[in-house]
Amino acid sequence: MKLVVVGGGSTYTPELVDGFARLRDTLPVDELVLVDPAAERLELIGALARRMFARQGHPGRVVTTGRLEEGVEGADAVLVQLRVGGQEARQQDETWPLECGCVGQETTGAGGLAKALRTVPVVLDIAERVRRAAPDAWIIDFTNPVGIVTRALLQAGHRAVGLCNVAIHLQRKFAALLDTSPEDLHLEHVGLNHLTWELGVRLGGPGGADVLPKLIAEHGDRIAGDLHLPPQLLTRLGVVPSYYLRYFYAHDEVVREQREGPSRGARVAEIEAELLRMYADPALDTKPELLAQRGGAFYSEAAVALAASLLGDAAGAVQAVNTANRGTLPFLPDDAVVEVQAEVTADGARPLPVPALDPLYAGLVAHTTAYERLALDAALHGGRERVFRALLAHPLVGQYDRAERLTDALIGHNREHLPWA
What we know:
The chain is of the alpha/beta class. It has helices at residues 13-22, 39-55, 68-72, 86-93, 109-133, 146-155, 166-178, 212-227, 231-237, 246-249, 251-260, 264-279, 299-310, 359-381, 384-393, 400-414; strands at residues 2-6, 31-35, 61-65, 77-80, 138-141, 160-162, 185-192, 195-203, 209-210, 240-241, 317-324, 337-345, 348-351. Helix content is 48%, strand content 16%. A six-stranded parallel sheet has the order 3-2-1-4-5-6, sandwiched between helices. Strands 7, 8, 9 and 10 form a four-stranded antiparallel sheet that branches. Strand 7 (185-192) and strand 8 form a beta hairpin. Helix 5 crosses helix 14, helix 6 (146-155) packs across helix 14 (359-381) and helix 8 (212-227) packs antiparallel against helix 9.
């Protein structure tokens, strides 16, 4: 089995490598190819990956290359993890929206739109080249904004599934609170990427008893603290929102916090610099604990599970993924991309039936889906007016004068990545 990681020079790649090494019985990788144009970083990560495989006694070989076609030829699956513009672009996404009174975040709001505009054309170009070199390969997208990027891939006819770590992170957290194994819990995880709610937590599988009321009653304070939301909100809603709902439910509070302190991107840049120094140590053969602060907890386990299911070694497994709606949420178009539990096989992801969404959540999902459609249109075709329309449609913007100012700021800060600007 040949797996390829595009963006393999990322400081996050050792998290993936750790999962591939530990879970080799689930996903028997013969060849792991790391592709990245940043040669120096790539060799650093590649050397660490080889040491990690050796420490775990993994027989697979690790290959590094800056040539995409060379790397993906004959691949079974291609994982895409990119950050167009690097951490510098992320820090901009998290700061200039604040000047207009909007949250600064890399996947939500105006910053998320900027990332989509930079990212979608690049990922589509990569996918086309993958299709020519390895037409049967699955593309697993971890590149944010995952929902918009996955919709772009599916719309272009690619064999693609989007992946986020929010569901698996909550599953692990809830299992620890309930003193049970994660595999015993089935989350009724419903919504869009970075806009999801846990409507139920079923013990023993989809038909099991719902222990979500027990979780909220006994551990609501702790769960709410991790989400940085008031415990009474969880009690009133009776569901657990993802962390990203804080940008909607506590928008003004977040804006105040962001204006007073350094951006998350600035902290991540510091972590990355330290990680690169650690990776250069030839004695290091495990992922360092500091990597946990980089974000993306449990992504490696989610990626292994998804790849194993798509490649036929764990066919029929249920996992939260980003895939075409196809009637799952009846108030959305079939081609919208939703994040729900799905049965994953070699034919792709088939969403499982989900509970009916209360209008409180369905309204926000429909609103955000409309924005995502306009955002993808702007990413594919460019133009100031398309950017403006997407911002005006966003639930966190929605004001004419604010959308005008954000449009100018977005284009000004991203001109080098927008050929039409």
